[in-house]
Amino acid sequence: MRTMLLTEKDFIGFNPRTYSGKKLDYNINLEIEGNLGWVRFKGIDVAGSIHAKTGTSIKAETSITAGRDIKVGLGIKAGWGIKAGEDIKAGTGIKAGEDIKAGEDIKAGTGIKAGTGIKAGWGIKAGEDIKAGTGIKAGTGIKAGTGIKAGNGIKAGNGIKAGNGIEAGGG
């Protein structure tokens, strides 16, 4: 699978910079140059990985989907959902209007927030809060530097740990 590298030349505007190229091919790994601040897309859907280097954050009006992993130097935001076949990792926060799903780990330096659910095949870890409108589910553990809050249920195969509080609306 080929890797497509996006640089400052592929974006217009500033903070957020908007992707100005043609529609991204599906069968690629997407790599984004570092130190670009926020870069904005209509949506991203690739079969491979999405990697944004240190100093770059990704924002999508719709969804961000990768068949493999999503790794971003700063933050990740999507109007709809964020989904990866493997890991989702962000240096700062991860936020989605709907679901956040990973086949393996979800890790954020600050908070993780989803309008609906958060689900990881392995663990979920955030430096601050983990919040979901419905449920939070992890195959192994869930760990937050401050609080964990779900509108419905919280489930972990191994352990749940929060620095401040744990709250679930339904179970």
H/E topology pattern: EEEEEEEEEEEEEEEEEEEEEEEEEE
What percent of residues are in strands?
over 45%
The total of helices stands at 0
Distance between the termini: 43 Å
Count of beta strands: 26
Q: What is the approximate shape?
A: elongated
- Strand numbers in spatial order across the main sheet: 2-3-5-8-11-14-17-20-23-26
Largest sheet: 10 strands, mixed
Gyration radius over CA: 16 Å
The low-pLDDT segments are none
Structural class: mainly beta
Taking all residues together, what is the mean pLDDT?
Answer: 95
Helix content: under 10%
Structural account:
- With 171 residues, the protein is an all-beta fold.
- The chain is built from no helices and 26 strands.
- The protein has a 10-stranded mixed sheet with strand order 2-3-5-8-11-14-17-20-23-26, with no helix packed on it. It has a 9-stranded parallel sheet with strand order 1-4-7-10-13-16-19-22-25, with no helix packed on it.
- The radius of gyration is 16 Å and the shape is elongated.
- The mean pLDDT is 95.
